[in-house]
């Protein structure tokens, strides 16, 4: 790419905003602790109740029984809701796994129930008394172990080839052939995933922490099998998202189910230990890089293949994208490979593809 015409003056050159000491609209609220986050809308409702998640104790298996008698009879408990207690829920395309398991456990710490009580402490104590009988099943958890079984491109993500890489690489004066690996990485925002739900007749208002309001609204409507126009999402502040709050997650669904079951406003916050496995994360990768250059150092051949893993229906980590954009080479090959793993859902994390691929 060659630029021969001067760019000229652009709005940034005028420095009307860039470099000026401007106050952010939300700056004073955030720096004084006055901004209202998802778990803090206390003044907007009365009769607030609290929900606490019961998370799957195994990574893969079948639920035989969920014994909730002790929890239901615990002090302050208003309801215990399992996947078997509600009408069949839908699953949005943007969720690889169901947000509330019924019989099948798809990953560790998948939500299998929620306890609603008068106080947070009562909900938590009762949730810990819920007993789950399950039949564990063997699973696949190692990308390295599954890598050799995956040698075809991802559906809808065909390999990209320009020129003849094999020939250009064979003829290159200088060659590099290396394999690199990056680990799984989990979000841990300052603000946990949290939601508060209120029903008014058949209309739902959800205060939540979400980066994509319309996705949250449409996916919640699909999950609850209700008209999207009857759902309102409120999320003016996010205490850290970076991709981890792009999608509808279990806190929002459990708050909505709890509020509907108790006819009370209900809020649910995911505990810190549950967040890495109940929400999305950046998947691990194994990347094979081959570079060929002539004696002057000019790259003549590039190949970049990346393997990652996800649940059925999940997407790959797009680690090869930056090789397509940043490097020249007359002969090029990039490809994505996706292994099926029984780990929590892999999805966007800040600079998806770029962070592990650069």
Automatic annotation (TrEMBL):
<dbReference type="InterPro" id="IPR000674">
    <property type="entry name" value="Ald_Oxase/Xan_DH_a/b"/>
</dbReference>
<dbReference type="InterPro" id="IPR037165">
    <property type="entry name" value="AldOxase/xan_DH_Mopterin-bd_sf"/>
</dbReference>
<dbReference type="InterPro" id="IPR016208">
    <property type="entry name" value="Ald_Oxase/xanthine_DH-like"/>
</dbReference>
<dbReference type="InterPro" id="IPR008274">
    <property type="entry name" value="AldOxase/xan_DH_MoCoBD1"/>
</dbReference>
<protein>
    <submittedName>
        <fullName>Xanthine dehydrogenase</fullName>
    </submittedName>
</protein>
<feature type="domain" description="Aldehyde oxidase/xanthine dehydrogenase a/b hammerhead">
    <location>
        <begin position="32"/>
        <end position="138"/>
    </location>
</feature>
<dbReference type="Pfam" id="PF02738">
    <property type="entry name" value="MoCoBD_1"/>
</dbReference>
<dbReference type="GO" id="GO:0005506">
    <property type="term" value="F:iron ion binding"/>
</dbReference>
<dbReference type="GO" id="GO:0016491">
    <property type="term" value="F:oxidoreductase activity"/>
</dbReference>
<dbReference type="Pfam" id="PF01315">
    <property type="entry name" value="Ald_Xan_dh_C"/>
</dbReference>
<dbReference type="InterPro" id="IPR036856">
    <property type="entry name" value="Ald_Oxase/Xan_DH_a/b_sf"/>
</dbReference>
């Amino acid at each position: 790419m060659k630029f021969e015409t001067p760019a000229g003056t652009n709005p940034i050159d005028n420095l009307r905003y860039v470099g000026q000491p401007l106050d952010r609209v939300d700056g004073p609220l955030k720096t004084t602790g006055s901004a209202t986050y998802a778990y803090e809308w206390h003044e907007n409702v009365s009769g607030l109740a609290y929900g606490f998640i019961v998370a799957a104790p195994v990574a893969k298996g079948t639920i035989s029984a969920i014994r909730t008698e002790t929890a239901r009879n615990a002090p302050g408990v208003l309801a215990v809701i399992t996947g078997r207690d509600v009408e069949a829920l839908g699953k949005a395309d943007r969720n690889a796994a169901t947000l509330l398991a019924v019989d099948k456990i798809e990953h560790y710490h998948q939500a299998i129930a929620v306890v609603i009580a008068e106080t947070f402490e009562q909900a938590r104590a009762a949730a810990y008394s819920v007993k789950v009988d399950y039949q564990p099943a063997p699973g696949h958890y190692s990308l390295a172990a599954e890598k050799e079984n995956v040698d075809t491109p991802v559906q809808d993500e065909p390999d990209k080839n320009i020129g003849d890489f094999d020939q250009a690489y064979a003829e290159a004066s200088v060659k590099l052939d290396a394999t690199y690996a990056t680990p799984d990485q989990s979000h841990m925002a300052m603000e946990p995933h949290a939601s508060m739900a209120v029903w008014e007749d058949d209309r739902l208002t959800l205060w939540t922490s979400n980066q994509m309001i319309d996705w949250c609204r449409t996916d919640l409507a699909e999950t609850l099998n209700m008209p999207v126009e009857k759902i309102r999402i409120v999320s003016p502040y996010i205490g850290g998202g970076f991709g981890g709050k792009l999608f509808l997650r279990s806190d929002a669904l459990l708050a909505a189910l709890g509020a509907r079951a108790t006819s009370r406003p209900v809020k649910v916050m995911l505990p810190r230990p549950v967040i890495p496995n109940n929400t999305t994360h950046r998947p691990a990768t194994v990347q094979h890089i081959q570079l060929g250059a002539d004696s002057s150092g000019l790259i003549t051949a590039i190949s970049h293949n990346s393997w990652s893993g996800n649940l059925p229906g999940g997407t790959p980590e797009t680690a090869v994208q930056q090789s397509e954009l940043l490097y020249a080479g007359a002969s090029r090959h990039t490809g994505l490979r996706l292994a099926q793993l029984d780990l929590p859902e892999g999805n966007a994390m800040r600079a998806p593809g770029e962070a592990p691929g650069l």
